[in-house]
Amino acid sequence: MFPIEEYIAQFNGKDISLSVHDLETGKEINLRADESYHPASTVKTHLMMESFRQARAGQISLDDPLTIFNSFPSVADGSPYSLNATDDSETSLYERIGQTESIRELTRLAIVRSSNLATNILFQRIGANRINEFIAELGIQGVAFLRGMYDLRALKNGMNNRGSARGLTQTMRLIAEGKVVSKEASDKMIEILLGQEFNESIPRLLPKGTRVAHKTGWSDDFYHDTGIVFPENRKPYAISIMTRGFAEDNESEAHDCMANISQLVYEQLI
């Protein structure tokens, strides 16, 4: 048994999936990589991708202003629902209802601060169908963005977002290779992902100065992190860790687990 598998095996009662693709060597590590999870905020990356695609196509401008609002139609039946600032990791937008913010800044906030309100405002403008069509066009497997954040009516009706470690790693690999929209757009997305403010998992135990462009996601007992790791003097690697079953009141255990897996992956590849 390899060190990574040996480490994961100690977590009885937890589901842990890992997918890695090394752009330097082509080496892959896939452990339960196709298992489907509630992806939490990791799918905000795919919303960002479609925003850049629509901007490249001239359908929107990233500098277009959008009104900040907090009432959204459920994708299940159109009934309205609102978000609660206490459930969001970014709260400044709630104080600005009725004002405007650019698509560019809303996209940044959805990634680096994982803003649910920014995500839902963009989701209304960008559209679920186009996000999923773009995911399919890129050949990304096992990922779907069907509903906005906290659309509980949709969730009750079985309409849930989904993701797999392999699908998230495919996503990050394509961005790292400059194949999402364009090389320029992919580089701008990497720049946004490098600004991630929640760094308790993939980056935490890596050598000081290692750049990591990544997107976290956690909800209930789901804890995930997906990204691109840039070791010095070599090509990067894409990595995704998805977990289910860690206690909500002890999230540090989940972050510690992912940080240690990330460190083991780094040591195996580098």
SSE sequence, one letter per element:
HEEHEEEEHHHHHHEEEH
**Strand segment tally:** 9
- What percent of residues are in strands? 15-25%
Number of domains: 2
Mean pLDDT: 97
Q: Which CATH top level class of the largest domain fits? A: Alpha Beta
What's the tally of helices? 9
Radius of gyration: 18 Å
Structural class: alpha+beta
Relevant CATH superfamily of the largest domain: DD-peptidase/beta-lactamase superfamily
**Helical percent range?**
25-40%
In spatial order, strands of the major sheet run 2-1-9-8-7
Fold and architecture overview:
The protein is α+β, with helices and mostly antiparallel strands and 270 residues long. The protein has 2 domains: 1-38 and 163-270, DD-peptidase/beta-lactamase superfamily (Beta-lactamase, 3-Layer(aba) Sandwich); 40-162, DD-peptidase/beta-lactamase superfamily (Beta-lactamase, 3-Layer(aba) Sandwich). 37% of the residues lie in helices and 18% in strands. The chain has 9 helices and 9 strands. It has helices spanning 3-9, 44-56, 103-112, 116-126, 128-137, 152-156, 165-176, 183-194, 251-269, and strands at residues 15-22, 28-31, 65-67, 72-73, 80-81, 100-102, 211-219, 222-230, 237-244. A hairpin with a 6-residue loop joins strand 4 (72-73) and strand 5 (80-81). It is globular, with a radius of gyration of 18 Å. The mean pLDDT is 97.
